[in-house]
């Protein structure tokens, strides 16, 4: 096979990038993998087809990952040279690998079971790989195919039944049918019997059109007829806009930061405002809050004083916090050098009520490399090289349970912290625990004015559709917004501007099919993948045994 054919997977990588947020060309995803399938066809003519498929797929998917995730470099620049290289390369390398593997398995399956079976199995392989990237210690599901339509909520309203993995399945199915239809068209022009080929082409184009258009039509109907459910609640979402590389941790005192947060909150508040949402690590910047004496902390007292004028007021805010122990109570606890006590650092969300109560939730989904050391039990000897965004070293503590914040009026809120909002099944688990509203607290300023913060903001819209929950999203820098139950942005801030937005969101208590059943499509795909791999192994052994007998 000529090397020039490598342009095919390269084209797929570029098309996937052009289709990805914030670029407005998401429909390209429905055709983006067609060149990759053609490359797999041409690879059969090479001396080593398996190796050729591997090289081509790695080239194409490395292109997509690099072009879409280039902004990770800006995070890496703040954590030291060695860790910085790892922070940049690990997501791109693992993302590339987990996209390449399904194509390689598709090639192997086609060899033993034929093209049709291989294409069906390929869907399971791909979704299983995406599911793994949601679940393991190196989890980074940023480029899950179903995320690609996040800026077009009117096209994917059926995510309330399937979640983003349904979107992945749809995109893969349309690509495969487009590939088969195009194959039929090219065969018609190369071979005799054009009448027969015309019928074959029609048979292939009709399923393609139905698969591409029916979900869109269903979505448009749902979008046009959906009526938001629940009673309204008034919120103020604050964006203080403190540079995380400078003033947030070094240049502006915590008192000044609190003053900015309170002033922005007051500027749009009503007497009946129930929620003020502040961003990730909004408090505890000079010294982490000590949870053992949380009510004595200055920032908590300031917040409670602020809330005295709001009868039903609650502040949901991110915080850097720590908990003290007399012994090593958790695997992540570290010992003070000059004392007998141990401590854990946390990336925390708090709900502070005007009646004096404080509720806490510790971030569960930690960012690999900057908040947790992946597989620390095996690689712990490298732990000294790790550094989290706030300047502390080592793995942060985390919370295994998903805590819903309940206000004195009975409202349940999901306190999703930053990266957690990318995990659809994780947020759905929260909602199943009784949450009627989703609040996302984040700090997207680490990435600079790049595609990163725009992608992260757009993914929040998917969580609204999947669960039919309104969302209040507060970013220290980035995009703060209010999102309705259809995934529409009702109000949002601008980049790098101290600001606040206010409005009413509906509190829905009903659960969607997806909320109740979670990532069931991914679990089914994983089961099919395991069975397919066992089948491949059996067929391979049987074929080799047959060759030896012959």
Kindly describe this structure.
The chain has 550 residues and is of the alpha/beta class. 47% of the residues lie in helices and 15% in strands. Strands 1, 2, 3, 4, 5, 6, 7 and 14 form an 8-stranded mixed β-sheet that branches. It has a 6-stranded mixed β-sheet with strand order 8-9-10-11-12-13, covered by helices on one side. Strand 9, helix 14 and strand 10 form a beta-alpha-beta unit.
Summarize this entry quickly:
It contains 17 helices and 14 strands. The protein has helices at 7-19, 34-43, 49-68, 72-76, 81-113, 115-135, 159-162, 164-190, 194-225, 247-251, 254-268, 298-307, 376-379, 424-432, 451-467, 513-517, 520-549; strands at residues 231-239, 275-277, 289-290, 314-325, 334-335, 342-353, 358-362, 405-406, 412-417, 437-442, 471-475, 481-483, 489-492, 499-507.
Assigned CATH architecture of the largest domain = 4-Layer Sandwich
Shape label: globular
Query: Which segments are poorly predicted (pLDDT under 50) over 5 or more consecutive residues?
Result: 384-393
CATH level-four homologous superfamily name of the largest domain: Carbon-nitrogen hydrolase
- Which value, in Å, is the CA radius of gyration? 25 Å
**What is the class of the largest domain in the CATH system?**
Alpha Beta
SS strand fraction: 5-15%
Count of beta strands: 14
**N-to-C span:** 30 Å
Q: What would the CATH topology of the largest domain be?
A: Nitrilase/N-carbamoyl-D-aminoacid amidohydrolase
- Domain module tally: 2
What would you call the structural class?
Answer: alpha/beta
Mean pLDDT, nearest integer? Answer: 90
Provide a count of the helices. Answer: 17
Largest pleated sheet? 8 strands, mixed
Helix content: 40-55%
